[in-house]
């Protein structure tokens, strides 16, 4: 069985920014894949006010053992003061796909 696989989420101000950063993360093998969903609308509280903005959402598939490096690099590249970087463990999935994610993230 492949190692633990994670699904990480991060929002960006627009699709071109997301595309540039996702490409860098995948190129560094910190994620096997990144999907960009755009546009999305985000409504959130920031500094005491309700904000609403168009954004792009990136979904990253990565190996759990690369998560610390992934988070550090994504945070350093991200334009937001406090970027959304959250992830969940993948408990089930096509074994061949999960193996591919793990192999693609091997350092």
Nutshell version of this structure?
The chain has 107 residues and is of the alpha+beta class.
Description:
With about 110 residues, this protein is α+β, with helices and mostly antiparallel strands. The protein has a single domain, classed as 2-Layer Sandwich (Alpha-Beta Plaits), CATH 3.30.70.120. It contains 3 helices and 4 strands. It has a 4-stranded antiparallel beta sheet with strand order 2-3-1-4. Strand 2 and strand 3 form a beta hairpin. The model has no long low-confidence stretch (mean pLDDT about 95).
Write the topology of this structure.
Blueprint: E1 5-12, H1 15-27, E2 33-46, E3 49-63, H2 67-77, E4 86-90, H3 95-104
Antiparallel strand pairs: 1-3, 1-4, 2-3
Quick tags:
alpha+beta, 107 residues, elongated, Alpha-Beta Plaits, four-stranded antiparallel β-sheet, single chain
Integer count of domains: 1
Supply the helix-strand structural class: alpha+beta
CATH T-level fold name: Alpha-Beta Plaits
User: Would you tell me the overall average pLDDT?
Assistant: 96
Order of helices and strands: EHEEHEH
Task: Give a count of the beta strands, DSSP E runs of length 2 or more.
Answer: 4
Share of helix among residues?
25-40%
Number of helices: 3
Strand sequence of the main sheet, in spatial order?
2-3-1-4
Give the CATH class. Answer: Alpha Beta
Residue runs with pLDDT of under 50 for 5 or more positions:
none
Rough outline: elongated
Distance between the termini: 18 Å
Which CATH architecture is right?
2-Layer Sandwich
Radius of gyration: 14 Å
Sheet bearing the most strands, described? 4 strands, antiparallel
């Amino acid at each position: 069985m492949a190692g633990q696989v994670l699904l990480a989420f991060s929002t960006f101000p627009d699709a071109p920014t997301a595309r540039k950063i996702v490409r860098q993360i995948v190129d560094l093998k910190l994620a096997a894949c990144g999907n960009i969903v755009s546009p999305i609308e985000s409504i959130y509280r920031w500094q005491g006010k309700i904000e609403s903005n168009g954004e792009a959402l990136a979904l990253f598939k990565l190996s759990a053992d690369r998560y610390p490096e992934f988070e550090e690099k994504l945070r350093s590249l991200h334009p937001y003061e406090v970027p959304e970087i959250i992830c969940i463990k993948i408990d089930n999935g096509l074994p061949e796909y999960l193996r591919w994610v793990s192999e693609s993230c091997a350092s």
